[in-house]
Amino acid sequence: MVEQFVGTWTLTASENFDEYMKAIGVGFATRQMGNMVKPNLVISVGDAGVISMKSESTFKTTEIKFKVNEEFDETTADGRETKSTVTFENGKLVQKQTWDGKTTTLEREIQDGKLTAKCIMGEIVAMRTYEKV
After folding, report:
1. The whole model's pTM is what?
2. Which DSSP symbol is given to 21?
3. CA separation, residue 32 to residues 18, 19, 78 (Å)
4. Which residues does the UniProt record annotate as the domain Cytosolic fatty-acid binding proteins (predicted)?
């Protein structure tokens, strides 16, 4: 199911990410850092189907551990306290984060050997592309 996502991925392209960060309420200074860093995304599957998704950069490293279809508490890299759920739909890992009456969706999928992360907040869509290391 999620095995295709397992591995270390490095960010190679990012489109409209600043607008996305603005839409979810990220402040100017944090957006500047977020636009500069090229994080590695490390995805692994552990015992009992627990998935680890770690974002590593020189600025900040964050990690979430979750089971598909089970809600969990997440503190995002920009400090939001969210309730998150990751589902597996049509080959995509779809993560929904809710906080303060807002919801954002992150759709991760493998296309042509690359991992794409589509970040959606209302009408704003950012696309981030990762290549396997």
Report:
1. 0.95
2. H
3. 8, 12, 12
4. 7-24
